[in-house]
Design a protein that fits this description.
The complex is a heterodimer. By secondary structure, chain A is an alpha/beta fold. Helix content of chain A is about 40%, strand content about 15%. Chain B has helices at about 5-20, 35-40, 45-55, 95-110, and strands at about 30-35, 60-65, 80-85, 90, 115-120. In chain B, α3 (about 45-55) packs across α4 (about 95-110). Chain B is built from four helices and five strands, in the order αβααβββαβ. The chains are: A alpha/beta, B alpha+beta. Chains A and B meet through α1, α5, α6, α9 and α11 of A and α1, α2, β2 and β5 of B.
Chain lengths: ~600, ~130
């Protein structure tokens, strides 16, 4: 007989380990050691009813156990073979047909590490964080671990930077730790700027202390006394909550001088970013912190050697920091058991676009895109067909349907011409024009280019002009080749990742949706019927009943017709806004 | 107050008495999810509606609290209702009218309003 004892965070904080001790004692007392094995498991998900013990092979589910229950349970069930009804889970007297969380596609495949406290604690109360093992990892690192041991633990966990680069966090820490100098800095990069991405904002909003605790552990490991959180001013709620968290942690002596009564000192300051996309790049961010014009600089030297004010600086992203306390609490082996060979742990994605369930999801690395979009996301809205998924924001690329079974990890995405990025995931349906998408993302990077490198500053502008021309029906033979040449040169001739990756949306759409470009250029039509210059709205004579609804709604009075007679659109006046299409109740408007 | 390592356990124990129903005095706990997504879709009105329910019923054994985003942003405003000894129930797409019914039938009457509920239970953590 196997006793599966849940030792997820929820159950442990409800005394799962005391339950294990009591079980062991009783099992020995009844001489049942040979027959019963105690196995500790990860979280069951039913945290509210912990501590939980599942008896296998019978699949009997005991919940809300206390140490007092154990002697009776062992004697009755394990010795006499009579399962104890009163300790079992009962679904309640009124059998309401409400599904369990684990039967809901959206939640079933998620696994929460960075978001472990989401929706559970009040983020403005430090005590609620502490009640869920908060700052326990900090105590462990201060009391039981040397800085070397902390770095080693993070290295062994296989954690890689969640901000986009995917550099091994432990190695980054080690370099910074070994860098000469007494004055070192810690930075949390919360300057999340990708369109459609809100992972970092959500982590800071729902669990700010996990980030603070991670940073403090990092400071202990590398020997830093000061830290910065660089966060966008456009995130007012996240800002308020992180400021409050800092205040509360300082009051409790969890940051500041002599943390937890030891001689370790570390304090954190918040710096608000003004919404420049390039500030997500670490050297530009550091220059911004120094009060200078935020432009990236040549690496090396890396910030770990020469960062803020020329001192060794360790900079990690919000999600990376939020993972640190969990790794220290549960161990490197636990963390590295999740995920794939080269990408360990989980990744948070903001799942947006044309999916039914939009939201914030945390999934183990190695899950397929299909699982994320169809099982978690619930498929495409309005039963339309899937066309592409864009990962990595403006630096990433579009992945077509035939690659949906690809596992999500750093290497696979890069191989597809995409990047993991910080976790934006935009799903597109059949009505999306891929040339227009490429144009949109390029207009974003073009706008956000800092202007330092000529290729990025002018090259993206030229690419954008070509794309605009194509979407307006003025594309020429040779445009595709020109785009490809510019793309290659921009990524070679730019200093930082902004320029290096800016052509990615164009390159991936050219790779997987080249025919759409060709149709725009040669046939002057938009296959998705989205590019306004290439479409026209017409009224179908066989379907129009002459109700006049479109005529009344048309903002430019382009539609005319007598009551109960077929109407017509004056193409010279039509601005292709689509209001007639949306308002017609008889499907009489068609797009050509 | 500056903490010592052992103080964390004390806070943890004390908090459990107030936030975890079966050890505490509360009979029901209502969590309104107030991330940016929740607030944008009207979570403040949902919070007020629950508050109004509590005030009008003079109930003293109901804990009303807020938390961050529950993940399923497209179904906000969301709230979680947990009665003592029962698994938590997540409600989605809330309106003030729905809150009134949930408060009456579930929080006070103990019967889950299945039409508005998304799911029962908690997520897989760690």
């Amino acid at each position: 007989m196997n006793l599966m004892v849940c030792t997820g965070t929820g159950c442990v904080s409800n005394g799962a380990f005391q339950i294990i001790d009591a079980l062991e004692k009783e099992i020995i007392r009844h001489n049942l050691e040979g027959e019963i094995q105690i196995i500790t498991t990860g979280c069951n998900g039913f945290c509210a009813n912990g501590p939980i013990v599942v008896v296998q092979p019978d699949d009997i589910f005991y919940q809300m156990l206390t140490v007092k229950d154990i002697p009776f349970l062992v004697e009755e069930h394990f010795l006499k073979g009579r399962p104890v009804k009163k300790l079992m889970y009962s679904p309640g007297e009124d059998e309401t047909p409400v599904p369990k969380m684990h039967d809901i596609g959206f939640f079933k495949k998620q696994r929460l590490i960075a978001l472990a406290n989401r929706g559970i604690i009040n983020p403005e109360e430090i005590d609620e964080y502490i009640a869920r093992d908060g700052y326990k990892a900090l105590v462990k690192t201060l009391v039981n671990m040397t800085p070397e041991a902390i770095v080693d633990e993070i290295k062994r966990s296989g954690l890689r930077g969640r901000g986009g680069g995917g550099f091994p966090t432990g190695i980054k820490w080690e370099v910074c730790k070994k860098a000469p100098g007494d004055e070192k800095y810690i930075i949390c990069n919360a300057d999340e700027g990708d369109p459609g991405a809100f992972m970092d904002r959500s982590i800071v909003e729902s669990d700010p202390h996990s980030v603070l605790e991670g940073m403090t552990i990092g400071a202990r490991a590398i020997g830093a006394k000061n830290g910065f959180i660089y966060i966008r001013n456009e995130y007012p709620l996240a800002l308020r909550r992180v400021n409050r968290a800092i205040e509360q942690a300082r009051d409790y002596g969890l940051i500041g001088d002599n943390i937890l009564g030891t001689d370790f000192c570390f304090d954190v300051r918040v710096n608000r970013g003004a919404g420049a996309f390039v500030c997500g790049e670490e050297t530009a961010l550091i220059r911004s912190l120094e009060g200078k014009h935020p432009q990236p600089r040549v690496k090396p030297p890396f910030p770990a050697i020469s960062g803020y004010n020329g001192k060794p600086t360790n900079i990690n992203n919000v999600e990376t920091w939020a993972n640190i306390p969990r790794i220290i609490n549960h161990g490197a082996d636990w963390f590295s058991s999740i995920g794939t060979e080269s990408s360990k742990g989980t990744k948070v994605f903001s799942l947006v676009g044309k999916v039914n369930n939009t939201g914030l999801v945390e999934v183990p690395m190695g899950i397929t895109l299909r699982e994320i979009i169809f099982d978690i996301g619930g498929g495409i809205k309005d039963n339309k067909a899937f066309k592409a998924v864009q990962t990595g924001g403006p630096s990433g690329g579009c992945i077509p349907e035939h690659l949906l079974d690809m596992p999500v990890d750093f290497e696979s995405l890069t191989k597809a011409g995409c990047i993991m990025g910080s976790g934006g995931m935009i799903v597109m349906d059949e009505d999306t024009c891929m040339v227009e998408i490429a144009r949109y993302f390029l207009s974003f990077t073009q706008d956000e280019s800092c202007g330092k490198c000529t290729f990025c500053r002018i090259g993206t502008k030229r690419m954008l002009e070509i794309l605009e021309r194509i979407t307006q029906g003025n594309g020429e033979e040779g445009d595709i080749e020109l785009l490809e040449m510019l793309a290659k040169n921009i990524s070679q001739g730019s200093l930082c990742a902004l320029g290096k990756t800016a052509p990615n949306p164009v390159l991936t759409t050219l790779k997987y949706f080249r025919h759409e470009y060709e149709t725009h250029i040669r046939e002057k039509t938009c296959p998705a019927k989205q590019c306004k210059s290439l479409i026209s709205y017409r009224i179908r004579e066989d379907k129009c009943v002459g109700c006049g609804l479109c005529r009344r709604n048309c903002p430019t009075h382009a539609i005319s017709g007598e009551k109960k007679q077929v109407h017509a659109i004056d193409q010279d006046l039509c601005i292709k806004c689509g209001v007639c299409y949306d308002s017609c109740r008889f499907d009489a408007i068609e797009v050509q | 107050m500056k903490l010592k390592p052992e103080d964390l356990d004390k806070i943890s124990q004390r908090m459990k008495a107030t936030t975890i129903l079966r050890e505490g005095a509360g009979r029901a706990k209502i969590t309104v999810h107030m991330g940016t997504c929740g607030i944008a879709s009207g979570a403040r009105d949902i919070l007020s509606a629950f508050l109004k329910g509590i005030e009008e019923s003079n109930a003293e054994d109901i804990i009303l609290t807020t938390s961050g985003c529950a993940g399923l942003c497209s179904r906000e405003p969301m709230a979680t209702v947990e009665l003592k000894g029962k698994p938590p129930v997540k409600y989605v797409d809330l309106t003030q009218e729905k809150v009134e019914r949930i408060f009456k039938e579930h929080v006070q009457g103990g019967k889950v309003v299945a039409e508005y509920a998304l799911a029962i239970g908690s997520e897989r953590v760690s």
